[in-house]
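Researcher: Please generate the 3D structure of the following complex. Treat every line as part of one assembly.
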Amino acid sequence: MGTLLNYPQLSFIHRYAMRDISRSYKKLWVISTTLFISLLLLSLTFSIKQSMNEEIQANSKELLGGDIQINSGIEPLSTNTLERLAQLGQISEMIELGTMLTKQGDTPVFTQLRVVDSQYPLYGVMKTTPKDAAQKLFLSEAKPIVLINENIQNQLQLNVGDDVTIMGQNFAVGGVISSVPDIAQSAVFGEFAIINKAQFDKFNLKTGGSFLHNHYRLKISPDKTTEGIINEIESLFTGDKTVETRLPKDSVQSLRSAIDNFSNFLNLVAVSAMIIAGIGISNTLLSFVNQRNISIAVKKSLGFSSKVIQLIYFYEIILILILTSILAYFIGVLSPILANSLIPQAYGIELQPTFSILSYLNIAFIGLLVVLIFSIPSLYSINSIKAVALFRNTFQPVSLHFSTKNIFYLVILIAVLVCYFVLQTQQQFFTLVYFFAFFATIFIFYGVSRLLIFFLKRSFSFSNNSYKIAYRNIVAKKSLAPIMTISLGIGLTLLLTISFVANNLKTEISQSIPSIAPDVFFVSINKDEKNDLENLIRKLDPEVELEFMPMAGASFISINGIPIETIVSPDNRSSWIVQGDRRISWLEKPSEDNPIVKGEWWEPGITDQMFISMDSRAAFDLGMEIGDKITLNILGRDVTGVVKNFRKVDYRDISINFAIIINQAFANKLPFEYVGTLKSNFSTDEIQSKVVKEFPNISAIKIDRILSKVSEVLNKIFIAVTGISLVVIVIGLIVIVSAVLVQTTFRKYNNLIYKILGVNFPTILKAMTLEFVIIYLTLVFFAITVAVVGSYFVVENTLGLDWTFDSTLTLWIVLATAVVAFILIVIANKNIFSPKVYPLIRNE
Amino acid sequence: MVFEEMSAAIEFSNVSLEYGLGNELIKVLKCISFSVNSDETVSIVGPSGSGKTSIIMLAAGLEKSTDGSIKIYDQEITNLKENDLSQIRRQNIGIVFQSFYLIPNLTAIENVLLSLEANQKYDLDNEAKELLGEFGLSHRINHLPSELSGGEQQRVAIARALINKPKIILADEPTGNLDGENSKIMMKLLLDYTKKSKTSLVLVTHDTSLAQRCDRIIELNDGNIA
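Model: Done. Output below.
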């Protein structure tokens, strides 16, 4: 046959492959199943990500709440500016602040309060129960109305019509909010409530300004060009660092980023599962080739070239890939319908199934790369089958074929696979590191299996029959050791690594942080109220630990005269410090829990010069040096100060920590409010209730409540993440079962010989158990080692926490995986325990 | 590469075959020379290990000689590449094995057609049916090898070797796995075909009565022609 195939040859390959599949489909189930599961995971990820992005894109104005959003921070926009804006379109004003919401006789709840006008929302609808609750909000009834979300309703057991108190003013619960359209700006998943701005103004509800935000949304008049108006508005605020404008495309950025991060994780898990499936494909194909070595030799004796025979088998795999990828893709396309029932209603998101040929090709291409990578060494083993074996009947099992040409192809294909994934994600560095670690782990586990065989061959021998059989099975050419070590080892390593990271985070939140954190955090303390508040608390608990710090709003302008936005990119880890309003504080002496790591503290009493103390990590990220000149906008005035020192700030203790501290002597004349913390053995519920009753403007946030909410969210995330990573173990188990199944004839024959020699069933079962235990213990040792190193790196370096090892958790994971794997192996091996002598002797 | 029938079908000149087994060098064939004419039937006999099957493997281009020249219709094949050897084999040579070697998941007719398909001859089902009919297998054409008797399997294997109308038939102990009655049928089929189509036949056998039915006998002993 020539180099190029003509149509009749291709037609022959097609017909032969179709015939072979239809008659050998039972032997191809492992390839089909593992490929399908991993493609399905990939397809689900792609489909949901695409649907979410399209939903976000289609609703970007609803998510932002307008064609443009203007954030003016603590200070509202001037009447003149508002009048100018009103000429350009419909304007909606909103104030957001944190405050306490109290039901008589119950513990107050820290609530994110949205104060809205009658224009709200400009885009989309607010869904409530009862349905007309949103309209009632703006009726001038005798009693003002508040709409609460389900979290507040559940916590305080509130019903429509019940009374609650907000900043000393009584409100009636008018309804429960199911969803609001503008979720891009602020969190609406904790406790939040909505009141009417007219009533807010009427009752003169005031709070400490530092945690108050003024937002304005504009719906541009249809007769005006959106782009021109946006440019006009942006130019209105050029140079005003206290005002920030946001467009719909900006509003979806953070949501997109979160979706990208999670879908990237899912993609990596999916591709890991696919690579493990690839190991199974490789093993199944190799056993397929070995089972058909006579057929292949006959074809060669008839004049078929190795290339044509390889093409027939390769074509079969491609057909399976096409079928499984189409099925996986269609299930994936429909998955947004299922996802809708899992997405909390508060998001107000309704995903739509999206079909796209490009998305299908994307999945099929990844599948093709994996199939190519793992089928090349197996199918090239066909070259080693010689027709001369037909004369002597001397067939030797062939092994994976790694010639220089093959290795070159494999390197190219792996590079294409890695690049294809890396280029599709925003977290390119982490994706690359993941692939590197993944392939390194494959090599480590392959090395481990060879090391085990090497060690066993050189270890002392036992006279015990079971051990001898187990030993022979492990060191045999068709040993399960390499495939079991790699496929189960990688899955177990991934599961252990994720569990270790999750466990360390949970320990941090449930134990470490509460032990060092205060019990209650007070915000919006007017400077005139501070002493009264302190007296009240000390009356309740004379032993209380109280700390108050002054606080004022400021925004970052420049470093050494260079505008900050030109120096710090949004990707910078510490960019949050220089974006928008930031709270600063002042001290005359350095704080003990914020030790100076570089530079000197300032001389006291200097009133005409601002000195700055920076968080050392932020200073490093922002490229600051001691002596740099920093310009801050404090209460509308640009002030330049000199960086005197860097402090080590530990935000984990959730006490009062400021990234920027200035000298007290300079700050003395600034208007400010206090923020405070409390640690007490007394009932914090009672302290909180009394403080809120006496000081309605002060918000008292219970730390344990925040931590339990964070812990709850993290738990959900980790359950999902662990569940998803289990896919890799499931695929690994299927691969192992397939490896066991393809060895059935070989093992049956061996067991028959043992049976003839008088070895009984318990000895064979014991041998199998021993074989499993030896391989599993070896892979577990290395899986734990790799997981410890991986999780230590993540916990210590990325999360910046103290890493701890949980032996109970490890034991549970290792034992559970062992039990499931062993049961599956025993089931797969059930046919080999009592082989029938007659058929084997007849060579049937 | 289809050859003219004027020259010798097979020509071995000073052919040696050696291979290493550990530190030992095994000399399978020791500088042997012989030829087989285009319409001649030749049997090769000799004790086990004398090199009979090696001659078939060398003639089929499935094994490389250590030394000497092997020509198929004047075409030197010792230096040919795998692809060219495959081409010579599928266009000119039919091989019959002792162990039949039918492909288990293909029916009788599909096994026969495979030989044509290797030669890029497609959709010739009628020819295959006709040949199988001549071999008394009309009622078995859609049966899998596992559903055929040993004699039937070998008849299918011979049909597979002959369907392509080869100029040379190489048969390695074709009756080795058959009883006396089936052996006779098999030999008759092979000899009738070779006579009818003026094809060369090289038959390796232990059975002297079968060997004597060929035009000439080559006796091998310890790698030498006796």
